[in-house]
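Whiteboard transcription, Tuesday session. T.W. wrote the structure tokens on the left side:
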């Protein structure tokens, strides 16, 4: 029985992780659930999963959670400090890091420091602090299994390849809701249009990141740290059947295919190296039809270019890009700025961040605070 902590259990990945646990109650149990402010769902999850601990990060909601769980066997806690402490519990085996944004960095590092296996869905952790996180994992001998469908695909291809080194990663992208829109229409698009992803059901922030293709750019940076390469090519694949591909020195390419369902990579990250049955839709190749590919339009999606630039510059620049993007996306969702203001704010903040070539964790937090403040000021 593997005991799991889910950081961000009320979000899209967290809810699908709980569904995986439902399908395998003999293999997995949930020891800890956490949420930023979704108190009602957190309470429901804690009771259903019989979790030992439930953490609400919004301290104003602690009383509600505590009272609802009183006598249930689930202990209620509040705040980020409590969460960082609780993930180090010796009874926890695997931590599913699925909190949204930069907020996931601290508890993920706490879990790594305690030697926990990490199922990583929070890409911002590696975008902002890849060198710090990977060095901490190396020191503690911690396995980090990717949950993003693209990185899980790359991981699976590399396992199949054995000792052969990759030559290039082909990272697939759906293209998001604006793939076929002209630039002038995208410029006028409001959040309702941007939130209509054609293939995936995700939270608001990551869905906007998909619409700008910043999400794909962040995945490029994440892949650099997970697979120790910058030889990464993004290709738009609207059907989202091939989740990514790995090319080898002889030109051979291995691909991982599956229906768009995040439960597949979640379950593999929890059960690896074993594959378990999953109640999901399977590919029907006879009715699949054509699979199509094309280059991304960097003119329509400048955020993707910014991410490649941030990876090339390195240091604390990716942390600055992440902070600016989080602030700008929040402003876009609240209607304060337009779609292309997101990339404009990100570019300005990247250009003006004081560069630190080898940032410490303190430097990363400092960069995040400084750039977040600058970006927020630009949205008012």
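and on the right, the sequence the group agreed on:
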């Amino acid at each position: 029985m593997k005991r799991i902590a889910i950081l961000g259990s009320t979000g899209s990945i967290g809810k699908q992780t709980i569904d995986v646990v439902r399908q395998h109650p003999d293999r997995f149990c949930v020891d800890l659930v956490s949420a930023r402010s979704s108190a009602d769902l957190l309470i429901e999850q804690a009771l259903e999963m019989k979790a030992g601990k439930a953490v609400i990060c919004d301290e104003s909601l602690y009383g509600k959670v505590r009272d609802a769980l009183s006598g249930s066997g689930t202990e209620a806690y509040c705040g980020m400090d409590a969460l960082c402490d609780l993930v180090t519990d010796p009874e926890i085996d695997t931590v599913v890091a699925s909190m949204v944004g930069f907020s996931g960095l601290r508890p993920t590092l706490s879990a790594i420091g305690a030697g926990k296996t990490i199922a990583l869905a929070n890409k911002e952790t590696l975008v902002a602090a890849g060198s710090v996180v990977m060095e901490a994992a190396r020191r503690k001998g911690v396995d980090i299994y990717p949950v993003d469908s693209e990185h899980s695909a790359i991981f699976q291809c590399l396992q199949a390849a054995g000792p052969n080194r990759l030559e290039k990663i082909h990272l697939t992208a759906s293209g998001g809701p604006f793939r076929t829109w002209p630039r002038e229409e995208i410029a006028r698009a409001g959040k309702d249009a941007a939130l209509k992803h054609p293939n995936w059901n995700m939270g608001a922030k990551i869905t906007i990141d998909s619409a700008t293709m910043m999400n794909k750019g962040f995945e490029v940076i994440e892949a650099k740290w997970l697979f120790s390469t910058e030889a990464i090519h993004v290709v738009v694949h609207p059907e989202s059947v091939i989740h990514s591909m790995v090319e080898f020195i002889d030109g051979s390419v291995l691909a991982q295919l599956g229906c768009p369902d995040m439960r597949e990579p979640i379950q593999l990250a929890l059960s690896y190296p074993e594959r378990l049955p999953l109640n999901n839709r399977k590919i029907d190749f006879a009715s699949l039809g054509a699979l199509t590919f094309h280059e991304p339009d960097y003119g329509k999606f400048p955020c993707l270019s910014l991410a490649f630039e941030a990876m090339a510059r390195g240091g604390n620049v990716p942390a600055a890009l992440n902070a600016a993007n989080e602030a700008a996306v929040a402003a876009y969702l609240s209607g304060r700025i337009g779609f292309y203001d997101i990339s404009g704010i990100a570019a300005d903040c990247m250009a003006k961040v004081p560069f630190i070539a080898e940032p410490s964790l303190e430097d990363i937090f400092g960069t995040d605070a400084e750039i977040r403040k600058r970006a927020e000021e630009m949205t008012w």
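Someone added at the bottom: The chain has a mean pLDDT of 95.
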